Every structure is written in structure tokens, then in C-alpha cells.
Amino acid sequence: MAQTKFEKESRLSVHMVPDQAKQFVYQLLASKQVKWYHEIHETGQSIEAKTKYQNKKYSIEFNMDGSLQDIEVETHKDDISVKTYANITNVLETKFDKHWIKKIQIQYSGSKEALLAFFKSGHPNNITTNYEIVLKGKTKNDKALYEYLFNEEGTLKSKKTIIFRNTDNIQF
Amino acid sequence: MKPFYLLLLCCVFSFNTKAQNTYNIGTLPTINLSKSLENNWKINFKSEFRQLFKTGQFGNNQTTNYDYVHTDAALVASKKTGLNNTIAGGFLLRFRNQDIVKRTIQQFTIINRFNAFRLGHRFSTDQTFVSNETMALRLRYRVTFDIPLNGQSVDKNEWYLKISNEYLNRFKNKENYDLEIRVLPNVGYVFTDNNKLEFGLDYRINDFVNQSTRQRFWLAINWYISI
After folding, report:
1. What topology is assigned to A3-165 in CATH?
2. Which residues contact B202 (CB under 8 A, 6 or more apart)?
3. What does the domain layout of chain A look like in residue ranges?
């Protein structure tokens, strides 16, 4: 069953961020320009760090106590294995008459130690990799924006319809 | 774009030194009611109440007589034709003194959503009918930019900045052409996604192609409600 995606995001002062979240981000990336956000979404609340490091956009999500949820890195379809991407494409072609991929993020989850080791050495031990894809999908009756989540093999895990904010004040 | 705005600013100040350059100062509150219908249709009712507080010529005396200029009532039906596109058409009645001005409206809107802001392009035409006058045709383009003042999207109980810039080409008879430029910096507050209040300046300059510039400064207050 498809869900709808709702998110309310507001800037968070670095002083309000739990120490363990700050420490993890500074250990992971040498980037000093980190923006912190408080997010309210359909399943609860979280803290998110956003930064750009070595030309890649990182989004690191924590629980409110500072424990890590996952790391998302914006990527290109060419960085996904051919087999996985073929599986993803097959799923999307069965769902839509036509689709356009807007954004792909690789989502890494696991223990802090495993993730730190992976980002330093590149060896994915005890790490779960998912692909979060934002796409525009067209069916016979509708066009909408969706967020699809696939596992490492390209099997569909979940999908959400992205709800747009009201545009009356731009339109009229 | 920067040289263009610099040129515009120079034009505004240079026109001020000539005769017949007038200004108006007033308020322009509007209420905007929308209702979503089935199959991506929406109906919008907009009413505007224009009041003039000050009028005069630059460099000369001003008059400060209050004048209730007009009340507008517009009904527009729109249909979402794509993820980002909407077409719309409607009708406006303007109640001014003893006259009723009638206007038909057609518009096409594209709204692009970026990570931290939205950009809207509105292309529209309208035809104005006044008794005993030739119909006036306007071709309009408006670009609107809105950005949250906190976070990456404009959410409930948050402020945002909205800036619009519009160009209106007005054709009436064969020889009568005018260009009006509008700049609208506004600050808005979101009570809920379907209830927003904006206020700011609605600056309009026209008639400069005919060497008798008219500048209008409206305090705009816009209330958007979607039911």
C-alpha cells in the first residue's frame, strides 16, 4: 500500500544538536559547513545534518537522542551496479507508462563503527545499502512525484507519494 | 539581470525630473479563496479592494484625499495539466464608481520546485471591456520566487519571502501601447498549508514609454485560503 510523504523541516542551531551526533558527523566528514535541521515526518521526529563534501551531497539522519539512523549520499545512476539498476528499471516500468528519475540517494545504515570504517576504507562490512529514488511517474490517469526505496539488489521495499505544498499564492 | 534592474532604476529617477510624472499611494488588500475539485480541477475566487490615500506629481504639491477606487471580484477555474503545469481561465468584474468593467482571463502557470525554493512562471492574457471603449488586450508574464525564512520548505507556522516581477503589455487601439512593470516584495506567514497571509509592497510603473511615467505604491495584504 502506498503512503504519502510528509515532512516539516526547520533549521536547528548547532548548540541544540546532541554531542554524539555532532561528533559522528565531524568524524565522518572533514566538512565544516554542516547545516542542522529538525524534521517532523509521518513516522516521528529526527535530526538531520546536511553538507556537501568532495562534490557530493550528504544527508545524515539521527534520532532525537543523537543515535544514528542512516547516511544518504546523492548519487548518479552510473554509480549503481548494472544488475541492480536493471531490476529497479523493471519495477518502475511495470508501475508506470513513463517515468523520469529526479534524484537518487544511496542510503547506508549500520553501526557507527561499521559506517565510519566503510567511509574511510570503502569496505562494506555489516552495512545495509538501499537506494532512495525520487521520480516523476506517469500512468494512464495520473502524473505524480514518488519516493521509491529499493534494496541493494533492486527489490522494491516501499513507495510514497510526495505531496506538494499548496501553490495558490504563486498561481493566482 | 542586474544591468536590467540598474537601467530600470535609472529610468525611474530620470522620469521623475520631467513633468507629468505622477504617483499614487494606497492599499490593496485581497482575499483569495480556492476549492479543489475532482480530476485536478480547482476553482478560485479573488476579491480586491483598492483604496487611494495619496496622489500627486513628483516635485509638486500632493493631494491627500481618500478615494475608494474599486472592488474586484474574479472567478477563475484551473486544471492541472502536468506535475508542474496548470491552465486556467476566468472572468473578472470591477466595480468602479458607477461603471462595471468586465475582463476575461486566460493563464498558463509552470511551478518549478527546487531544494530550498519554488519558482513560478505565469503567462497570461486578458481582455478588458469598458462600455463605449475599445477592448484592451494585455499580454502578461510574471515570475515569482518564494523561499522559506527558516528550514528548506515553507511549513506551518513559518515565515517566507515571496518576490514577484511582472511585465504587462497593454494594447488598445492601433497606436495605444503601454508597458507596465510590477515588483512585489512580500513577506508571508503560513498558518496552515491552506491558510497563508502575505503583506508587502506592490510597486507598479507604467506609461514611461509615453514619457509620462505613473508610479504606484500599494501596501498589499493578501490572504490565501484553500477549502
Report:
1. Nuclear Transport Factor 2; Chain: A, (3.10.450)
2. B28, B182, B184, B216, B217, B218, B219, B220
3. 3-165
